[in-house]
Predict the 3D structure of the following.
Amino acid sequence: MRTLTRILLFCLLLPVGCTTDIGRLERRIDRIAERCDARIGVAVTTPAGLLLSRNDTLLPMLSVFKFPVALAALDRMERDTLPLTHPVTVGFERLDRNTYSPMRDSLPAGGGTVALGALLRYAVSASDNIACDLLIDFAGGPAAVDDYVRSLGIDGMRILTDERRMHLTVGNQRLNAARPSAVCALFDRFLRGGVLSAAHEAFLRSLLVSTETGADKLKAGLPARTVIGHKTGSSDRTADGIRIADNDAGYVLLPDGRSYCIAVFVTDSEEDDAANAAVIAAISAAVYDHFADDPNSGMHGSTPRPDRYADRTPAH
């Protein structure tokens, strides 16, 4: 009864239009999520703060974690005053044939050298697993990346391992995890600027906007030519055919100058890949429509509505 009373009082403090509009968006997202036999985590933030969250518990990140890896690597570059052209040696022992790596396929069998800027492009835009692990090593290891994220004031994210170890067993793909709201908070922190030099921030934005994966996810729910910088992530399937994670997260720039960050995590899905992507795209469209229909949304500070799913059992 006390919890219900607090929620009712909270709702009374919100402007009526805000409560109605966000509530309508939440209900639309719920209807979309109910189509999918999976656990759907969603968060949306604006420069004014958290707009809404659903299932905002620790969920497997998969390759979404390559965004914080890129931030940490660029931070290390700046501290060591290294240019994007700085060469990194890639020995033949790093060229694992059993992982996704366009970079590996471009190198001689014995290995070679790759510039840091190229490693970042491979890891972020192409979601290259070997390039990602080389950047993790350069940044000081998973713990250093995790510490860097925390230094930015981001809670609710844990980075424990790299791509190679993540793929030793299917269960390891749950190790790197985050609340969708934490992922949004990190994108928002980056988008506001001041995390890196202006040149490196512009470079990373260009990589996120040039993401080659997930054209059928967040991007598919947006009008053509909408600017979106994002990072996708998807897992292997378990022996029972369960997709541990199918994710997309990033920021969207609206034509009128507003922006928002969005994370949609599809966890433990029994659906096929097309159905997972369709749910992400539909939620993306719903959120975009909310901002298009309400030109004031995201312009003023507001208290987020409570996550009605937050008390459910977290992911493993």
The first strand starts at residue 39 and ends at 46. The longest helix spans residues 273-293.
